[in-house]
Design a protein that fits this description.
Layout (H helix, E strand, L loop, with lengths): L9 E6 L3 H10 L5 E7 L3 H11 L3 E3 L2 H8 L3 E4 L6 H10 L3 E5 L6 H14 L3 E4 L6 H11 L6 E11 L15 H17 L3 E10 L7 E10 L4 E7 L1 E13 L2 E6 L2 E6 L5 H12 L10 H15 L7 H20 L3 E2 L3
Parallel strand pairs: 1-2, 1-4, 2-3, 4-5, 5-6, 7-10
Antiparallel strand pairs: 7-11, 8-9, 8-14, 9-10, 11-12, 12-13
């Protein structure tokens, strides 16, 4: 964006009208340099609901028509995984910067095509790795980067939810199961805080009892080139959203409790100290009552467009995390550890 355009608002369109479209719209609504112009989706009832909620001027059932009509600067792609490749490439060829929900694509070949299109169009393709924008997770990275933990030895990311109700989640040709749709959040977060490459992955998984070919639980072990170990657990069998995240370093450990980062030094705890810790935990306020991480994510995306800077979650990050997730699926099938360099 040229200097004369610095004060111009970024004209944004949303492609997709489901759950993630809602969160992106809620984020953009609070970004002063963004103007929500249009929404394209496939379900009329969802389109009308979101249009009313966010006062969207223009709506479409054909995203290509939206791209032709509205001369947008940027779009968020919040559609099912199997549609990402075509929509992202079309959007960039129409001159748009793109914020694409994870995973980047179904296959590495599709991811490569998307990255090639990004280079050819000279546009930004940012990945929607929302965990990087939670304040508590950003604080953990800051503490690690400042060296307070010393060398990281082990880190873990476990997340459980109930399987989403949308039909495409149960179709193997439209998504990669819990590994690529859910565990990939943990893969990216671990790569981000470790500042290291994954050199080996091993995994175990279970298949959903009702949907053949769809993994609904997966545990994976990641070995990093700095000697650290990462553990990712993901489940579609949990009754509600639950996360468990922690990092163990040479000097101290970090955990997240109800959205608060807890730093633990290595010392002996008295009974009194343990009681005080429990009381403090009971009064921690859940993070989701305080802020919206998608405001930070969409704000970062718009800022990168305005300044011409590289986003913190790039298309290459999307491709690497997808490769690790796919290799984890391969490990779970074969029972073998898989060597790689990601």
């Amino acid at each position: 964006m040229g200097t004369k355009d610095k004060g111009k608002k970024i004209r944004v369109g949303i492609i997709g009208a489901g759950r993630m479209a809602y969160w992106h719209l809620k984020g953009y609504r609070t970004v002063k340099d963004a103007q929500i112009v249009a929404l394209a989706g496939s379900t009329e009832s969802n389109i009308k609901r979101l249009q009313k909620k966010f006062a969207i001027p223009h709506t479409y059932t054909d995203y290509q028509k939206m791209l032709e009509d509205q001369h947008l600067d940027a779009v968020s792609v919040t559609t099912p995984t199997h549609t990402h490749c075509r929509i992202v490439i079309d959007s960039m060829q129409a001159g748009c910067h793109v914020l694409c929900e994870k995973p980047i694509a179904l296959t590495l070949e599709e991811a490569e095509r998307m990255i090639e299109a990004e280079r050819a169009a000279r546009r930004i393709l940012m990945m929607g790795f929302s965990q990087r924008f939670y304040k508590e997770f950003s604080l953990m990275k800051e503490i690690i980067d400042q060296g307070h933990l010393g060398a990281v030895r082990v880190a873990w990311y476990r997340r459980g939810i109930n399987m989403p109700p949308q039909k495409w989640y149960a179709e193997p040709d439209k998504n990669g199961g819990v590994a690529t749709e859910l565990a990939i959040h943990g893969i990216d977060w671990l790569r981000w805080i470790m500042n290291a490459r994954v050199v080996q992955v091993s995994a175990e998984s279970s298949e959903h009892p009702q949907y053949p070919g769809i993994d609904d639980n997966m545990w994976m072990m990641l070995k990093f080139d700095n000697g650290a170990i990462g553990v990712v657990g993901a489940s579609y069998s949990f009754p509600f959203l639950k996360r468990d995240i922690g990092v163990i370093g040479e000097k101290m450990a970090l955990t997240v409790e109800r959205g608060k980062v807890i730093m633990e030094g290595y010392s002996n705890y008295s009974l009194q100290m343990l009681v005080l810790k429990y009381i403090k935990y009971c009064f921690l306020v859940p993070y989701w009552l305080l802020y919206n991480p998608f405001q930070r994510e969409t704000g970062h995306f718009i800022s990168c467009i305005k300044s011409g800077t590289t986003p913190c979650a790039t298309s290459e990050d999307g491709k690497i995390s997808l490769e690790i997730a796919l290799r984890a699926k391969e490990s779970a099938r074969s029972g073998q550890k898989i060597d790689l360099r990601c």
